[in-house]
Design a protein that fits this description.
Elements lengths: L11 H16 L10 E6 L5 H12 L3 E5 L1 H4 L23 H11 L2 E5 L3 H10 L4 E5 L5 H15 L6 E5 L4 H12 L3 E5 L8 H14 L2 E5 L2 H5 L4 E4 L11 H7 L7 H4 L7 E4 L11 H4 L6 H20 L19
Parallel strand pairs: 1-2, 1-3, 3-4, 5-6, 5-8, 6-7, 8-9
InterPro entries: Asp/Orn_carbamoyltranf_P-bd, Asp/Orn_carbamoylTrfase, Asp/Orn_carbamoylTrfase_sf, Asp_carbamoyltransf_Asp/Orn-bd, Orn/put_carbamltrans
Organism: Cyclonatronum proteinivorum
EC number: 2.1.3.3
Amino acid sequence: MQNLLTISAYTPDFYQHVLDLSAYLDKQRKLKPLDGASILFCFEKPSLRTKLATEVAVNQLGGSVIHITPEEFLGGKILHAPQDAEVPGLPEEREALQDTVKNVSQWCDGIFARVYKHETLQKLAQWSDIPVISGLCNDHHPMQAIADLYTIHESFRSDKPLTITFVGDANNVAFSLIEIGLLFGHKMQFAGPMPCYWNRDQLAHFAALGSRYGGSFTHGSDPLPLVRQSDVVYTDSFVSMGQEHQYAEKLRHFAGYQVNEALFSKAPSHARFMHCLPAHRGLEVTDAVMDHSNSLVYQQAKNRMVTAKGVFAVLCNAEYRTEAPVQAAAALPTL
């Protein structure tokens, strides 16, 4: 059984197989590798693309989706007692997570969870007898990274390494994007303010990935010199979900990091713009860049559905696996 919690858990061969299979399954709509399968969806965070694109993918592959609330599946608080009541000995959780996961494993064929803490996904994987696939956590967003790599390769159609620059926050999207880019030998760059930067362990992790797979990682606080040599300029919201209380503070840090027409014009004329969405037009990016002829934002969104097909087929149907995908990169520590 396989799970997908982080990008660096697998080798490039795994992801190349997923990408190739995604394109194939999207064209061969008659194939139903999830025929009769039931996939449980549980979302602690709101979602449009992750939820809808993945549900469409599962449906097109012949599977069905069952939505369940975090209160029902992830333990939840005791809801039947008055909120202000003091009940000695009353458990805080409705049910142990271990028990709910073991129950779900008897009925379903996969779990797709979008949560706050990475530890929640790790506990699900620890106790589950079926594949657990991350729909996002505070530290990682592997499904987004796979779709982004598919979009980049689809757009450039080149075997040569590309220069991909992320401008903004050192967040989950940036982390997984840098990981998958390094796995495929691309030159990954990051520009962001020091208060919202990578820590020492994360920087060491990127260096290890680059050394092992041939990619490189350059980082700094000034986006201009990095954008000048970029094939792709990528940004994301400056304030991630759950950080709304830091809104004013983070906007102060990100003054000067907006991807606007002045900054994007410094990139080569062939450079593409990417954003995982939702975008806050006028904050991290301007309308002129979002709607630019070189913008790939809606292509990225479409490919969330395309690559979900490859991921779920490989993880939830053994017939669609090869020897290469099951070789986890065990020798490399995973953050």
